[in-house]
Amino acid sequence: MKKVLYLLVLPFLWASTTAAQTNHCIKNRYSQDTFFSLNQIDTLQNIKYGISNIWPGTGTQDLHMDVYMPKTAIDPLEKRPLIILIHGGAFLSGDKKDMAYFGNAYAQRGFVAVSIQYQLGWDCPNTNFLTICVQCGTKASNLIKAAYRAMQDTRGAIKYLVNNAATYEIDTAAIFLMGESAGSITALQTAFLNQQEVDSICTTCKPTLGSLDTVNAHLDNSFTIKAIVDNCGAINKLSTIDNNNIPVIGFHDDLDCVVPYGNGRVLNCLGCTAFNFVSGSNSIYSRLKSNGICAQMNSKIGSLNHCSYPKAAIVGKSSCFMKDLMCKNCATFANTAINNIPSCDSGYIMSTPEINANELNIYPNPSKGNFTIEWSDKHYANCFVRVMDINGSLIMEKQLEKAETTFNLTETTQGLKFIFLYSCSGELLAIKKIIIQ
Prior knowledge:
The chain is of the alpha/beta class. The protein is 24% helix and 27% strand.
């Protein structure tokens, strides 16, 4: 039955050069809008994925996860992208159920979404961000250990899911992490930090808590993170992202005092300086951009809140971001328009404002079908452009062999078209619109 359903959706698949691209470049799926209805989603609760050592103290604790996924009986795909959800709560509180909205929302767009439980607590009785410094400022080293334990549990969850990919019909080449606050810190550090880098931050973590791969140590620990959805998170050492080609889409209040938007100390409300110095979402975005890694930053300007970016906007924008990556069409940009959610139908950013449009000079525009493209940087020579219509259909692809290239689209239909400029390595550099009359 699944194979029959798959044939029905083949007309909506985007032509591509590799099977991996074809699998996930499907019209309307992984997009800003839902692909499946809520009653087409299976929710599997409290699935045991591992055992973690209790700290402080002795003994062990079972770890569980909730899985949200399209019903396999109706989903034509046999392998789906995986997004692992990690809740917030300052490593003191929170529950995997806190991510239920995101679990359902991503599953309705075609992902397998998994919300994980991880060990909490760092010997601090207070969960009020404004006064936590008074009672727990002397326990900063314990907070770092709690973050380390969360990384251990997250790695254990990833290993479990990779080793049980057939059960949940997961594409292990498309694993994404999404976290909120402490969960986002966990996601970022799980993706970017190896054991040696963590040891340089916390010299006592491995001797007292074991290696990063302590949870499910018997399972294969080789996996790749494709990208991260960062909701008001941070990373301890910004330089650790330099050797990792992992894209990030960030969401953050710019005046956040719990987790800094730029560089600063966590839990810094009321001037607290007891806790560790970190680099927040905007600093991560700037570093990735300077390294040539695809990144997007969505800022809530003038907001003193923590993690207040609307959930629906996070899901819509991050789904488009992940789809663009899977379709090898990711663009780097920053955005302060909260409700400006792009249309990522068919894997291309078709309704967003033009990106780096000043890099392209198109004339005449509007055009009768014959027009010329010039680009400002000679470095773009020998790269290529694609011309697409508003439905995402490819009209023409052409190599750029000199400083200007002429196109003839007199046979195409009239209306709005999009010019995509790519680097020689396939990175999207600019988008500009043209009207064919």
